[in-house]
## 1
Amino acid sequence: MIHRECGVLKTTYEADMALYPLPIARRAVGAVAALFFLVLPFSVHEYYLSIVNLVSIAVVGALGLNILVGYTGQISIGHGAFMSVGAYTAANFATRLHWPFWLSLPLGGLMAALVGAVVGIPSLRIKGLYLAIATLAGQLIIEWTINHVTWISGGVQASIEVPRPRLGGFEIASQREMYFFLLIFVVVAITGTLNLVRSRVGRAFVAIRDHDIAAELTGINIFRYKLTAFAISSFYAGITGVLYTYYLGIANYEQFQIVTSIDYLAMIIIGGLGSVLGSIFGAIFVTLLPILIRYAMEAFGGLVLSPQAVLNTIPNLRLILFGALIVFFLVVEPEGLNRLWRNIRNYFRLWPFAY
Amino acid sequence: MVDWQFFALLLSNGVLIGLMYSLIALGFVLVYKATDAINFAQGEFVMIAGFLVAVALGAYGAPLWLAVALALAVMIAFGFGLERVMLRPLIGRPIVAVIMATIGLAAILRGFGPLMWGAETKPLPLPIPDEPIVWGPFFIPPIQLLGAGVSLLFLAIFGWFFLRSRQGIAMRAVADSQQVAMAMGVNVERYFALAWAMTGIVSALGGLIWGNLLGVDVHLALVGFKVFPVVILGGLDSIPGAIIGGLIVGIVENVAAGYIDPWVGGGTKDFAPYVLMILALMIRPYGIFGKQIIERV
Amino acid sequence: MKRWLPIPIGLVMMSGLTLGSPGSAAASHEIVLGLQCDRTGATQTVGVHLCPGYHDYVRLVNAKGGVEGHKIRAVEIDHEYKVPQGVEAYERHKKEGAVVISLYGTPHTYALTQKLTEDRIPGTSPGFGRADATDGTRYPYVFPLAASYWSQAGAAVDFAKKQLGGLKGKKIAFLFFDNPAGREPIPVLEDLAAREGFQLKTFAVPPPGVEMGAQALDIAQRYRADFVIAHLFGRSPSVSIKELKRVGYPLRKVVSFVWGSAEADVEAAGGFGVAEGYHTMQYAGVGTDFPVLNEIREMYKKEGKEPSKEMASTVYYNRGVMWAAVAVEAIRNAVKAKPDGKVTGADVKAGFEKIKGFTLGGLLPPLEITPNDHEGGGWVQIWQVKGGKFARETDWYKAYQDVVAKHIQEAGAKK
């Protein structure tokens, strides 16, 4: 991308697996961090920051789902429900016990991890389609429970308003403040995932995905690692749910229904299964797609269609494009945007002497 | 009313609506049986078929037989085309890929239907009376009777097809082992396409009947969610299983609504079948009639 | 493979967006209205008829010279009934400089309440959203405008009382969609049951509500309800009409809340012949016979066009006109106080609170919005399916507002 990598020879496995394989990568990361922490937030309108904020939340959730689906090979259609578990846990702690966000947030994640591990138990016996449907059932059962147990949902409206997150005496309210708040979690989530997948646990996940029986023969405890994968993935989902809650100021189960689970699956498929970078691409892409289509239609749609028809066309077109992209990436480019990105980079790696 | 009578009425309700669910589940089972593909867009198939009939009847004033013939033709062609364009490249890929591809297809169809024909709810009138047939204490709506009849008819036809006809036996061979079937001179791809076309037929009639019951708009696709408990309970690859699974789900829903709802103060109708399904997954994952070859880990 | 943080691509896309987006071309004195809509999500059958009504009214106002000489512009954003998209839509509206935002959806109203209040932009939520937002002192920037579910519950019970000639010892069934919005009226109904001495039993219809044979059977055969109050969404209202009819329950003993009361619901149930007798509650007038609708048809004729086909679905279309009309009236009040047209959200809020006796020839109820009462009274009409169309059964009325007020107060005290 920005740097070249010639002249670097690795002599140890440690060097090969390092987080920053090249010295220059460290500097590139530093530059990117500076861009996001110092330049971006002060150079664009708050509206664009609000879009970045939605992307940030989605990145955390997509990373979590990718750990489960992309790295461990277990499908889950219950990601949205795990978010709601995190959201309601944190909301209850924040409103009943008035705990600050830095306590309620990890608690939300942990509760989601616990529930996720329970929903993941069927994965010990079944896989593929059966697991997909079992997690779908988990999604519906969690939704139903939150909807009907007022002790959890805080009343018939099943909505809990939470106070804004506070740090000391400082209240995080505006989109710009929220941007920094969320960016920290994005950084932590990305570093956490990068480190997880190159650890012993991460390699066990990949082994289970690639061949579960072979993995078992090499001494990997499949039961334990599958549940771990469900728990970690759900922990991310729970954190995502809490972030949504603090971002919107409300925990509401209607935003964590099956469509949400499917959106997140779409993110990691379009972005690239089993790739951190892919999760980020996917989250950016799926969040921006409707907005970009809207801008495009607002700019050019009027040339061919009446204003009313434009308004009717935008959303349906978005839905069609959304589905078509999922199908396209599955059929044509199973490794997603991440692969496209790598192709581009490999081309420029030797450019202009590509022979 | 005497309680046993209420119970009997709930049962009759459950049986009729259950057979209507079976009608949708049949399409799902057919595809799985022949091609091992999972169709998460079954509800959307039904919706598109419903749109076709309703628009042909309403906007173009076509006679019913023509509208149904049109829907059948389009759905068959759609099944063929879909297999060719989308499913065939996915053969041999992990099951997750097929599941997600059909989820993507579902989004396409949900956007396409309203874009083409408008999002407003369209009636789908059929020349059958609305008044229920009263038989003793039972009220039987003709449309549900028709739906149940079509379901049972399909059961008979597909039963004959898979047991007796040459194509059906070939299709079973393909389902058993694609490689062996190929070695025996069966054109596997042709049978894949045939299976999708048959799903098209089932969906077309499902769309006709459910469309009459609910009216046609995107909500019609929601009946697709009823499929999963039905097929898991009955067995993913079993035609009689789809019927029995439908009956179980229909009856469980009605009994749950009649006897459990008052206790919990909420609707358990959609919840109960899924709980039952989880139990089934733990105890007998291949369903009541399914082949016992589920891969355990 | 190098592992470094890939965020720059996001930045590139972001900056592309910044450059490529049309700037908020707020011409001087142009007043912007934000409209959130759902044309592809769970409530699309409502949105595709309602939102065109909104746009047509805005066009009509502009065709007649705007609001006190200032042009207005409606920016619609489809949020697919998803909350994060709703928040994005809100931020976009804020960027465009909207002085009033017509919200769409109960969860969205909950999610945006705090932001609206902080940014001082009034948001309207007619016929959905939070019932306790009626209290303008607690939710200064949320305007339910139309009867909340609590007011609808009061009105429905009152209607049942008149139909049955007294409620003592009667059995009322509440058939509701099993989600938060569906459950919202239950506390009010329970209070009214205690006060009027009727028996109340609730029947939940879980989403998606495509089947409710057992509930209908229970209502008609086991519980033997004297009257049914239905509060359903999506496709389930038409299913309820069919199922109740099937088990032999007379539809003239059914009254539906506002979201189960459109032409589409009746059509999908098999047409007006099948649903004969069905009572529907409305918060805007039904039918084509209103002066403002004639003006819109005139406007289309002058442009040499056919009136939009959405006008045929009068229940939702008229509601769209109403959403726009009340918002425009609030802007008008604001502009009257600030003739240069540079009104802010706070001005429009004050404008809303001055609305009184604005009925558009009977399309709107006689709203009277005050700083305390953002609901404007809780008015509804009952229309009955009769002889192939909706016939007006009652004039604008409201009932049991004291009970509703008590609940609003309790909700306020709880926080």
## 2
Amino acid sequence: MNDRFFPTGKPRAVQGGIKARSSRGAIAQTWWGERFIAVLERAGIGGRLQRGKTYARKGQVISMEVTAGRVDAVVQGSRPKPYRVRIGAPAFGKAEWAAVESELAGSAWYLARLLAGEMPADIEEVFSKVGLSLFPKGPQELSMDCTCPDWGVPCKHVAAAIYLLAESFDDDPFRILAWRGRTREDLLAKLTIASGGGAPAGAGAAAPESPDVPLADLLDSYFTLQGALPGPSPAAAVGILVQAPDVDVTVRGQALTALLAPAYRDLAD
Amino acid sequence: MFAVHGFWSGDGLSLWAEDSDLPTSTSSQAVRSVRPHPFAATADALTGLLPGTPTTAELQLPSQRSAPLDSPELLRVNPRRATRVDPVLSSWRVPAVRLEGAAGLAWLTDPGQVAARFGASVTHLRDLARFARDLAERGRVLPAVTPTGTGGVAHWRPVLQGPDALAQHRLVAALPPVSRAAGGQGDARAIVDEALHRLTDAAVRERLAEAGSLLPARRGRRPTVEPVADAWLGALTGPDGRFAAPPDGVARLAQALSPWAQLGSGEDEPARATFRLVEPPADATPAVDTPQPWRLEFLLQSTTDPSLLIPAPQAWDGGGPLRRWVDRPQELLLTELGRASRLYPALATGLRSARPDHLDLDHADALEFLTVAAPALDEAGFGMLMPNWWRRRRPLGLRMTSSTPTDAAATEGRFGRDQVADFEWRLALGDESLTDAEIEAIAATKAPLVRLRGQWVAVDPEQLRRGLDFLEREGTGRTTAAQVLALAATHPEDVDLPLRVSGIEADGWLGALLAGTTAEQLEPVAPTERLRANLRPYQERGLSWLTFLSRVGLGACLADDMGLGKTLQLLALEATERDGTDEAAEHLPSLLLCPMSLIGNWQAEVRKFAPHLRLHVHHGPQRLSGPDLTDRLAETDIVVTTYSTATRDIDDLEPVSWNRVVLDEAQAIKNRHSRAAKAVGRLQARHRVALTGTPVENRLGELWSIMNFLNPGLLGSPETFRARYAIPVERHADTDAAVRLRQVTRPYLLRRVKTDPAIIDDLPEKIEVKQYYRLTTEQASLYQSVVDDMMDRIAGSDGIERRGNVLAAMTKLKQVCNHPAQLLHERSAVGRRSGKVIRLEEIVEEILAEDDRALLFTQYAGFAELVVPHLAARFGTDVLYLHGGTPRAARERMVERFQSDQGPPMFVLSLKAGGTGLNLTAANHVIHLDRWWNPAVENQATDRAFRIGQKRNVQVRKFIGTGTLEEKIDTLLEEKAALADMVVSDGEGWLTELSTGDLRELFTLSEGAVGE
């Protein structure tokens, strides 16, 4: 509204900034991403997020860090010095997390889904059971600051950061928990200990694949097969699309998976 | 002779070849630089041999100072001398041809007839291409995008999980070093990945070519800039995946698709979750069932050491020995279970505890897991430990027992297909009919999984109810034998019954036919006394079987091994049947189709075994047509013709009502689209017979073609046959489908192999076969000009000079019969210029199909040097060659190699060098490529294989060109057999004593010598 009081020069280009991947449609693709956006919408700022979209897509966000209770982002605007953006929400305390963790420890389901990249649908109940809310209840719990001179709340820099934050929650649901005060590592350590597991082993991970034998050592069998060829494969059981995680790609308004389905039928014929 | 090798680089396949005719060494001693490969096939030779764009490649090959070593596939008539110097790697430049993506896939899938031998690198790539096609057909692919400077490339990548990841590992491990020999090549894994990726992409595009673009119709106005995703999706079909788009748009698309990138990318976790289904204890009766008697246990299995299986409780306690590979087993187990719950949502219940280690299932859950979830989890790469019985499960089905009434009146005197049969249906488990008590017990339990006779059986209560209803209403009745046979051949899915048909059983001849035991059970049919042969017991059984199927009116495929006398059995059938029919019956001729090269054989065999049968050869430019043909048929028993003549004259042959149509070497109609296959389908006959030693040469579709000729419609349409039998059996090694196909075809197929203990005692130790063939037109005209020229010379000479001329004439004529190139001293491709070589290829094909080994004798080094590389290239195998100049040590090595278990299947020997002192009992075939008019010499050679230590029967073949001097001298020898031993004991000299008139008679080509 008051943008015009300030120079509206083009934002400076950023090398290697974080770029939003969705090119159209809703910001968040998962239910938990949507829940996060819904909180903002209840705060009456959902609609204004669109302002940050172009910024987010261009890669104006230089960096973003999620820590307990806050998200710090650095966003390049039209001025030489990038702006600092902070999105705050109160993190849960030690005691509160202990209560949550003891609930989570009773059922491996939550962690299993989280590790497989999904926020389990019923995890909100776990928090509400101990009197907490996983997502900020409303605008009063959220604080948004930016060092730019723009008065609009949120300004496009904050909006761009929120936009990317929603995407990063989609990618890794553990980040929401980190924002609320528990990193993935802490949580895993607490939960595996809580469920009786030992400390992580010090031994190295899988041995690297042995590199190829040098050609010069194979002169005796240079022209021959070095092992048996694979035999015929068993028939297919399920389509790959069932197994594939969701992707956010639409073509002419239709979901990619829907458009690909007939191709997989043609392949089988 | 060429040996073709290949390697994959970048987007395409490169092929190069060695040529054994080129000199073996280079003059360049510049060991450190890249030298031209001295015996690599030239660019010209290569483009004549293979498709693709000419190019060159630099290869590192094991070499001596002045030359690379030969690949084992390269066959030299005169082997290079072995040196004691250890080989080193040197760089060589070779001409090559390059085939990009789709063209590479096409060539690897079907290279066609290439006059060359393929090296292991080509074999490897061909298997890789097969795998790529297979992945495409099974939909184990996902689309992806790779950014380029001006946009992106849309491509399909293979998704490798579980068994497919294993297959890829094997391809990497098996890669021959020469496949990595091209300059700047990556490691084995990178090469296989790249080739697989590119070939899979090509295979997907090929399969989607028909359907066209995946892009949906545009709604609304056309945007000014085409969205990146549109361009990408559009580029996923069509020949080229490249598309233009702004780079950041492509990057965003790649980001959006990133969740797919990890799936089946071939990067393994150190361990994977494995599921074990544990069945309820055996003593639990349905009545005292716990509500959830099945247990699905979770385990972790090490990828590095698959034998290491850790049950979930142990993983929770720290992982035990798995700790060697896995840092945090608990976390890995949970991640895996979380991933699995996506495919198997019911798993959630099992995860609702602090340390989940199993899931309890009721019968319905267990059934759902077995049928739906397990295959999906297996394919997604999870481990599956299923109860053993599940793999051998037999479904609940219906089984028919039919019996033919013994009461003669009830059959109304009818026999054969129209014969009446009573039938009864029963519930059955596989082959076993269920008792009434068992049926009651199943009906009483409401569970979908029921334990029955030691196995668990899936029972759909609704289906069971309808099945029992059916048994009540239509469980018994009366039908005809023809209908029972038709039902037995029908695929279970096509039978309109509430449960699948699990078996059909019958008594009497019908039962024997269905069980495939007809030949053993029949009353033997005595051959007519006019047949001039003593049938061996198995041949009598064959005759009985043919006679029986003929009487019942069913088409028969006699598929005995070569050398067991299919021709004789067929002639016995014709002779015996014709002898038995009364005079009043209508006379119908039989039509026999065979390859051109076999006409002479049939003529000779009829002459020998059943001279009273009236034979007419319908072949050649002077053949009859129209009324002339009809008149001739009225007084003919058997008409012999070739497939191509019959195809050409089908309009003349179609209206004839034949007694029987016989296809010899029936694989000639293996391609159902071929003109010959279509033509034979139009012939009208009372009975049909196919003779073949190899009913399935390459693909099951060939069997379909033969069976469809014999009994049209029996195996359904070609499309359903492909879907139900060919694809499951060929591509997925599905044993159920294979067993079913065997069941369906066995009433109509009789196959005896010569290694069968029941046959082997019946066989003589040595079978001598005269192998007739016909000259090609080129051979015939060459033959004629040699005769003209030499007869002039003989007539104009006497004494020693005349003798010399006679012997020279003989030699030249024998050479023409072998191959024109031998007489003309040409070094050109063998091609299809010699009737003898064409026939030889057919015979070798059968010998190899039966996994046998052969000795091939010739008197002429020139012919051996022609045949050895040709056979090696044509059949992709080593061919040993021993001649007078072979050093003693090499001789011994060759003999040892031939006699070893994995020895080469063919050994060419010069008659003189190989005549004595060798023990070659690994061979059970002896082929005399040309004749030595001295039986003693031939017999001595034959005895190489036929010696102490020979455990099998030996088949001896002598080539005889119809109408040539080969045939005439053979006849002469036969007629004077007693005399011959004495007269001709000193070689071929006796021939020179013949008068000029006799010689002219002997040399002149008689009628019927030329093929088409």
## 3
Amino acid sequence: MKDVELKMIERAKALLESGEVARVVGWKKGDFCFDPSPAVFETVEELKDFVYDYFCGANLSKYLIQVSKKEGKTAVFLKPCDTYSFNQLVKEYRIKRENVYVIAVECLGKLDIEKIKGNGIVGVTGVEVVGKDVNVTSAYGNATLYKPDVVLTKCATCTKTHVAKDEEIILHEREAKDVNRFEEVEKLEAMTADERFAFWREQLSKCIRCNACRNVCPACSCLKCVFDNPASGIAAKANDDQFEEQLFHVIRAFHVSGRCTDCGECSRVCPQNIPLHLLNRKFIKDIDGLYGEYQAGEESEGKTPLTSFTEGDSEVNDVVYGEAK
Amino acid sequence: MLKIAKERLNELYAKINETMGLFIPVKKAGEVNYAVWSEGKEVSLETLKTVKSPKNIFFPQTENMMKFKTDGKNIEVIDVRQALAEKTDEKPFVAFGVKACDYKAIEVLDKVFLADPVDTYYQIRREATTIVTLACSRPEESCFCGVFGIDAAAPQGDVTTWLDDNYLYWRANTEKGESLTELVKELFENGGEAEVEAQQAATKAVLESLPFAALDLSRFKPENLNELFDDPAWESLSEACLGCGTCTFVCPTCQCFDIRDFKTNEGVIRYRCWDSCMYSDFTLMAHGNSRTTQMQRYRQRFMHKLVYYPSQNDGLYSCVGCGRCVNKCPQRLNIVKVIKTLGGNAND
């Protein structure tokens, strides 16, 4: 991964020096080996803090809503999954495509520090990836973990490839994966309604209404969310497990259905580790079943299953022609 | 000093629970938070940091303040405090397993809620609670309580406890602690001084070696307020901020709340819930919001912790170094990055 990082810094430097771009959006190193933050680099000097490693899981696409409105062109490094969010935002006219220079960058799956710590490792001081081994050093001893066990949930079932790019930096071949991303959804579908209700109640009762899922979500790009708008009549901040949390998350899932690219950021950022992506995946699976397979963000223009009508639509008979099923 | 075998802890919880409510770290759907104990719940004292701090024992994330019952032209105002006080009188609480940082955070909250005008809702719960602290034995990389003068191996509280592989060691510190000890002492035996001392020495060695052990707070003083406020670094520090409330809601010292009314069939319930200075509608007034950008909101949060609060409270910072924001910020922004950047010893 270091070779990829060096190449990225080299390109960022060249683009900034030549004046082709006014800024570069990437990741900045943190205090540890596992806490880089998204960052905007405007000078070559600032690139000394640039990092690209196994912990750069954050999706940078949503930042472009603001950044692409600034003067001059912006270069951005996007992982395969990020390019779907990018296309979707371009499609919704939220990002000015002509102002962005997309550098597609390889991703071999990002690590989840919480999963690493979940193996009883406390005081992590170093993490090194060698093939499928994740070697962790800590204040209380060392351990070797199996990489597929400690990648971000969104990475575990990802088979995405770049769908938007102006150039690419891909130095390593990615291993093909044979995975079914709907496996967890199928388990939920196999439950009885009561079991499923109990599952979601237990999960959602942990919600602290921090709104991290919403704020990180590239599909949640409303200028003012109804839940933040005192004039909406339904503004709410309270975490009330009788009503608010459940409706909040379900409404949100409905609102982003057909537009959610399954980038998995909602589950990545949840401080209580609620598997929110499963709500969205259920909708994706249903849309696939009702309207034919569809992947939001694969294209940056065109109609979508929920914003277009065809005679083959599943609801044609009962909705359009009023025939009861 | 007293001790109880680890496998008998459940008996201890049950004994306390006979006459008192017991708040304790409990694992639910994979995450550990403070919850009311009952038989069969999965207690996790070993968890270093609960997701939410124990502050919600005294200051619940959402609570009803009063009710207005309407009947024709009459409005009956129902004060819920009386019922709350009666309930807590009948069954006071024990907060069990509170870490040194979280205990210090309660001191920070007390200065806000128990100062004039007293927040009676907080006061009722606070006074009804006996706090049993638990020393840390495995602090982690995100911990920096020592920077604020907190000793993770020797927390205060009504009772202090230490846990090792075999025993929980118990020492009462206050009258409240003595009464609780009286209630449960049949389960305990004497001893443990040597084990506790050994554990404290080992913990101290780890604490000193932690990466944030030497954070420099010297620039965060009231006299530097304007200079810190105007520092251009806030722009880059906050640029990745999502404006979510994670840092504020996992923080043991954040104390802001919003009061709203909720209409029901019988009338109106006035409730309060935690608010976050990271939110766009925080302290919203008729003219709009006084802080219009995320940078301003971000700056407010850290200036409050490191400058405003201490300037009003004899230099006491309202950060206790628990490191929850370090662990939980979705984009990995946190108070340590602020302290390092503005405190003068940036990450180099």
## 4
Amino acid sequence: MVYVRKDVSTLTAGERRRFVNALLELKRRGEYDEFVRLHIDVYTADGENGLRSAHMAPSFLPWHRRFVLELERALRRVDSSVTVPYWDWTRNRKATSVPWTKDLLGGNGRRSDRQVTTGPFAYAAGHWTIKEGVTDGRFLTRDLGRAAAPIQLPTKSELQWALADPVYDVRPWNSTVRKGFRNKLEGWGSGSGSASWLNHNRVHRWVGGAMLGGASVNDPVFWMHHAFLDLQWTRWQRAHRSHRYLPAEPPGAGDAQHGRVVARHEKLPPWDETPDQLEDLSRIYRYG
Amino acid sequence: MAVGVGGVAVGAEQQATAEPVRRSRREVARGLLGSAAVLAMAPVVAASRPLPTAGPADAGAFDETYRGRRIQGVQVSDTGRTLVDGVWQITVDGRPLHLMRRADGTWLSIIDHYTSYRTPLEATRAAVDELGPHRKLRDLAPGRFGGEHSGVHTGEGGQHGVRA
């Protein structure tokens, strides 16, 4: 049965409660922290040797599609009514908007130490101690909007700029490419400073705190953010039906990217599927 | 209900076996063990070298107090891990800070994975900015990243959580 992922702003009070409770149960069982750990472990940058499966690479989108699906499967083992909602940051743009409410993810971190003190993921609530973090902080942190040097969430037109590119990705398939849907969405820009953070990257920066580091999965907004990005991939596919995941074939032995990116029909570690097999999951879920 | 994706059981929760995951996780862990081992080995490598001489390997080394934190960085060796040049050993108050290199030559830290900086020093200062006055880096010792020694990768891996 195909299930529906909804806009988080449309969830009923009961749906919000069940989503939150399923997350807390995964955390209690220790399963959630395995997701955090995996995301830390797969981060290989493109200035280093080794296969880049999850970031700075064409497989950024299928990797995270598979990752969100895995979390969703775990949530649904706890409560079969739950699906991962998406956060449309082009519409819900304020630090007080959904999902930053007490019945969902709680609000911003406090000024002194960025600790989230409201909602179900507040440290004092006792259910969300950070175990797989990059610092010794035991509490979830956020810095919504980046208080020290404020930035805005990406706009609808910035997202559209990515969606309008008909080519999925281009050589050399990394963070330096300026064309192609994948990096326009992933958001590695040129230069430094605020103009260099686009779409996906800019949202991580806007949320700040845990979401900025290697252990970004510690903030449950990670899943809502990536569900929304996953929806963009689906939209892009609909808009450009003759275009597909690239590269179709692995870069050859003489190519600097040889062995460092996942081609369409290669397995995408640590999953058993290929990007080809992950391009269409409409038999499993759809977006409402 | 098992829902296949192109013949592969993406939705088949009960069909998932532990073995492929263990293998792939070890592969992931091995890569990280490599980088963590580089950091851990760095002082040994430095100590066993001839006396350091001024040269490219020392370019950009720093040792300063920034916002009350002692930050130190030195380029220790080129193990082939990075494509551009050597590996940096960075510490904040003596605790290792993991830096990554982007293809454009800029640097990312594990504290700030979505912004890159022109030099290791800038990336380290930015990490201190993010840490704030109270939090410390977690010590990413080899045992922590080495999957063979970590319950995260082995003890529980086949039982639940992230599996293919």
